[in-house]
Amino acid sequence: MAAVLFNQIVGDGYWHLRVVGEGEHVGAKPGQFFHLDCPDAGGRLGQGRSYLRRPMSVYAVDREARTVDFLYKVTGVGTAGLATLRTGDELDLFGPLGVGFSVPEHTSHALIVARGAGLATMGPLVSQLADQQIAVTAICSFRSPEAAVGLDPFERTGVTVMPVYDSVDPASEESSGMANLGQLINVANQGCAIGAVYTCGSKRVAAMLNQLPSLTNVFSQIALEQRMACGLGMCHACVVDVRIPTTAERNAGSDDQQTQGEWTKSKRVCCEGPVFALKQVLV
Amino acid sequence: MNDHGSRVAATPEGEFLVDLAVTCGGVPMRTPIMPASGTFSSEMDQVIAVDRLGALVLKTTTYDERSGNPVPRVSETAEGMLNSIGLPGGGYRQFLSEVLPIYLEFGAPVVVSISADTVAQFGEMTEALSVPGVAAIELNVSCPNIEADGKAFAMSTSATAAVVAQARQATSLPLWAKLTPNTAEVGDIGMAAQEAGADAVVVANTILAMSIDPITREPSLGNVMGGLSGPAIKPIIVRMVYQCALRLDIPIIGCGGIQSGHDVAEYLLAGASGVQVGTVSFVDPTALERIEDELVSYCLEQEVRSVSELVGAVKTAGATSASDMEVAP
Ligand SMILES: Cc1cc2nc3c(=O)[nH]c(=O)nc-3n(C[C@H](O)[C@H](O)[C@H](O)COP(=O)(O)OP(=O)(O)OC[C@H]3O[C@@H](n4cnc5c(N)ncnc54)[C@H](O)[C@@H]3O)c2cc1C
Ligand SMILES: Cc1cc2nc3c(=O)[nH]c(=O)nc-3n(C[C@H](O)[C@H](O)[C@H](O)COP(=O)(O)O)c2cc1C
Ligand code: FES
């Protein structure tokens, strides 16, 4: 159980929730998530109460204050229920769950490309990278300037964000089009070689990153979403297809990062993810 | 607490023992409470003391390797969920070498659940999986019978009997037949399983269901149809347990929508000797432990010294046989 400190709307249908958690909650690592038992959204018809828990990324953790933050978009009954929480209310959170991001040793420059709710997932990672004094290039994609939420962790850590928007001229440097993103990344890479890539929130972005020649051999991770039931690895609801190394590749010492393997094998997002090697994922 | 299924509780009159132990379908168990197949795996050990469960009923293993159904594999509905997971897994040979050993370590009785496309495959799997440490085999006859146009074995008395008889010849272990609620006469199917040599019936698997998103106009599941589980189905399955109890001599294991100790008592009163608990563990990962505590509290309040006293103890006025009852409401 956790107690709600605040729960406020921050724009574009997104809410920022902060709870005071218990010891195990604040051990959450970047990329991990909690399974939330969302309260009743009220009203007998249409809404009511979500039966299953809802997965939600950790947006921020403060160990000293024992707080855990979430940034969520109201999209249905579960998140509508979350939006009813008031200061002092109790929230049942289960977690932290899943395997989060990892940062390779000797990384001096990391690239983050995120969109929508994917921004929430990046929050704790930005803090970790800043703590490790790793330079960060952050490209954050939004529908429009009015829809830009989830930038607090970047501002707090002094990471400069390059915002890009769907609403601007595709030829502009602020366009969220794939050609412009590729261009921005190549420029950033020329200044100081990118040693790690992290993405979340857009399949198109993930596909673009996967195909960008300048990033071919760069350590790259993606946080995925999938509908869940148990969140613990028991039910096999949350699977995604991934490439796994062929026997020949494995014998040649290839790891999940480099594999070109043609096989696909289901992996459970809740316990084998949500973070996967980008090159392993079929996008 | 001690490990023989008795839980001691203090009352004003002194110590009061509630005996939770049951023998269900040939398997002596610490408590009548077990996880349901497909809703439990070793990961639960992170949250509860798995060794204290009545038995560990494992995810159904199949004859061949299967990749499972397309996503979305789950969706939710009022007080329940739909699933079409599709029995993914590496097939029974891989299960035997890589999966089963993990569960034999826990110390609770292990029940292996199997499913196959044909009667012969059921027999072959039963024989291969009757290895030391396995306490019973659960025959998931709710799966489609490839030899009968994909109709579930458990929709037909003869197909159910054929599977159970084949398995009976292949093993001396206790055999549990897990029935489907998707049939008009679950009592007939239960009788067929009993006559063919089953030691218990599990009532029941999920109810075939479907839901559609009116905005996208798409079914909520990738597989279009799936199985409904959770509290929404409980009164239907309690009724089926009751109907089976009126006719069968072998034990019945109730399964469907259990969320609390009172729900367990309800199933026992309807005639179940044990229960399996599924979907609620997704909502409350510690549910199996909590439900045991609640069952003990119920027994204390009701002055029930042994849970086996509850089995079939529903008070119905008059009606004593299935045929006595007016079925229409
Ligand atoms: C690991 C993980 C982390 C996430 N982190 C965030 C986050 O930080 N902020 C945020 O706004 N959203 C996040 N999501 C998505 C969030 O879980 C869904 O938006 C939410 O479950 C929707 O529930 P609902 O009842 O409001 O909507 P409904 O559409 O009514 O939900 C119906 C069903 O679909 C499932 N569902 C719907 N959309 C998604 C989705 N995108 N991913 C997974 N399941 C979904 C629900 O869990 C539920 O079972 C995350 C998802 C995952 C898997
Ligand atoms: C996600 C999920 C997976 C399941 N997998 C299996 C399975 O592999 N074999 C089986 O016999 N039943 C399976 N079931 C059915 C359950 O064992 C149980 O019969 C059913 O869910 C009803 O119980 P409940 O309402 O407590 O969940 C599954 C149910 C769910 C929800
Ligand atoms: S949600 Fe159950 S296995 Fe991932």
Summarize the structure.
The complex is a heterodimer of chains A (283) and B (329). With 283 residues, chain A is of the alpha/beta class.
Can you give a write-up of this model?
The complex is a heterodimer of chains A (283) and B (329). With 283 residues, chain A is an alpha/beta fold. Chain A has three domains: 2-97, Translation factors (Elongation Factor Tu (Ef-tu), domain 3), CATH 2.40.30.10; 102-223, Nucleotide-binding domain of ferredoxin-NADP reductase (FNR) module (Rossmann fold, 3-Layer(aba) Sandwich), CATH 3.40.50; 228-274, no CATH class. Helix content of chain A is 20%, strand content 31%. Chain A has seven helices and 15 strands. Chain A has helices at 77-82, 118-131, 152-156, 178-191, 203-211, 247-251, 269-272, and strands at residues 2-11, 14-20, 33-37, 54-57, 60-62, 67-73, 90-97, 109-115, 135-142, 161-165, 196-200, 219-223, 239-243, 264-268, 275-277. Chain A has a seven-stranded antiparallel beta sheet. In chain A, strands 10-9-8-11-12-15 form a six-stranded mixed beta sheet, sandwiched between helices. The two termini of chain A are 37 Å apart. By secondary structure, chain B is α/β, with parallel strands linked by helices. Chain B has a domain at 34-257: Alpha-Beta Barrel (TIM Barrel). Chain B is built from eight helices and 19 strands. Chain B has helices at 91-104, 119-129, 157-170, 186-195, 234-247, 261-270, 280-283, 287-301, and strands at residues 6-11, 14-19, 22-24, 27-29, 33-35, 56-57, 61-62, 74-77, 80-83, 110-115, 134-140, 144-145, 151-152, 175-179, 200-203, 207-210, 225-229, 252-255, 274-277. In chain B, strands 5, 6, 7, 10, 11, 14, 15, 18 and 19 form a nine-stranded parallel beta sheet that branches. In chain B, strand 18, helix 6 (261-270) and strand 19 form a beta-alpha-beta unit. In chain B, helix 2 (119-129) packs parallel to helix 3 (157-170) and helix 4 (186-195) packs across helix 5. Chain B is globular. Chain A binds chain B through residues 37, 48, 50-53, 94, 226-240, 266, 271, and chain B through 38-41, 43-44, 46-47, 67-68, 71-81, 83, 85, 88, 230, 279, 281-283, 285. Bound molecules: flavin-adenine dinucleotide, flavin mononucleotide and FE2/S2 (inorganic) cluster (FES).
